[in-house]
Amino acid sequence: MSEAYFPVGPGLGMEENFLSLDDILMSQEKLPGRAESALPRLALLMGQGASSTESIPEGSKLEIPLWLAKGLHDSKRRIISVELPKIYKEAWRTVFSADANVVDLHKMGPYYYGFGSQLLNFENPENPEIAQTILQATVSDSVCSLQTFVARFRRIMDSSQNAYNEDTSALVARLDELERALFQVGQKGLNDFQCWEKGQASQITASSLVQNYGKRKLTEVDG
């Protein structure tokens, strides 16, 4: 019996995949901002009016869905300005640098990595620091300090491989959606191996992530 829905993965970096439910939900997350010019007929959409004909005055503070902020953003015309959500500001970047594992990312933002990558679409002097905090590693005072994703990834995968038939709800509750997906991949791999080891499976099959990566490499070679 075939599945009614085949999950589609999110886009990479600053690109969105509009067939991905995760990316659709992420695009609804809101950004603090300001109207740099009057916005005709957008008051109802922004929750600031009772009619679709009302406009938002210049200078109004806004809570803008990501998809709309990207549509209104124009580097040449100052239509709106976008501010950083607090979790991406310097104070929180310092917390992540000290110990990324202590943060409840799901509470702060269920799409922390994807949403943070989307912020790079807007001109902000802190963009290099945001990108570094999300994905990269830095060296400070001769000590390598792995940043948020790398630091948390190791613990997530280690936990997924050492929690067979255990209640992992407390751990998973603190993870962002990308981290939850990675944890599930680790758990599935462990479960498949345990079944094979007990003779309950005829063979070990390659992860779908590995298979998809192989297909992409073959496509690149053929191209």
UniProtKB/TrEMBL annotation:
A cellular component annotation (GO) from this entry:
GINS complex
Q: What is its main location?
A: nucleus
Q: Which GO terms describe its biological process?
A: mitotic DNA replication initiation
**Lineage: superkingdom:** Eukaryota
Q: What compartments host this protein?
A: Nucleus
Q: Where is the DNA replication complex GINS protein PSF3 N-terminal domain?
A: 20-72
Keyword entries, A-Z: DNA replication, Nucleus
Which residues belong to any copy of the GINS subunit domain?
A: 89-196
The UniProt entry's sequence similarity note says:
Belongs to the GINS3/PSF3 family.
Q: What does this gene product do?
A: The GINS complex plays an essential role in the initiation of DNA replication.
* PANTHER family in the record: DNA REPLICATION COMPLEX GINS PROTEIN PSF3 (PTHR22768)
Subunit details for this protein? Component of the GINS complex.
Under which name does UniProt file this protein?
A: DNA replication complex GINS protein PSF3
> Which organism does this record belong to?
Loxia leucoptera
| Organismal lineage | Eukaryota, Metazoa, Chordata, Craniata, Vertebrata
* Gene for this chain: Gins3
